[in-house]
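FIELD: query
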Amino acid sequence: MNHLRFKPEAVLFDMDGLIFDTEALYRDAVIKAAEENGFNIPVSVYLETIGLPSASARALLGMHLSGEVAIDDLWKQASDQFQTMVATELRLKPGLIEMLDWLEEVRLPWAIVTSSDRDTVLSHLLAVNLRDRFRHIVAHGDYTAAKPDPEPYLKAASQLGIDPSRCVALEDSRNGVLSASRVGLMTIMVPDLVQPTPDTQCLCAYVAPDLHDVLAVLIDTLQAT
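FIELD: result
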């Protein structure tokens, strides 16, 4: 089962769709807001925005709607709807708590590397009582170039003081995989709404069905070294 090149020295987590089961909530909120304004955003179009910062996602959706609606107004409506859904529907991905417990036990550092802004990250973590478990966060605003550029992962590795090639990145999106793999991180994809294409899969050390499986891979790697 050993899919990694060598023992990792840190684990870097994407957030949306990886730590939190939020991508489906974002999808539903955006599609509903469009419908309420008399427009249609196909699921296939929304899926292209996964892993992008909000400004890039808005621009892509605006291109699809061809200027027929003020995209900033629609985005705010969707964001308000999303916040309402988060209040009652925010869920952790299965296996996360077990992984954090194990990382703490074996003393491997970890961090969040996300396209979401810091306020959103902190709000989500506080909602599930996990704020104290994530000391290191690299969020939108902490870097100049967002995923798929490698800068977010370079910044996280630098914060931890660890060579990027010795870090494992956990990602659910193509843009995230591109970001991590471009600087040599050992990348494990845990697909959420979108399954990897063959070219994305080739960039990954492993594609896992869930975080329980990722944990098994990490444990196997440490035991083999």
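FIELD: remark
The chain has ten helices and six strands.
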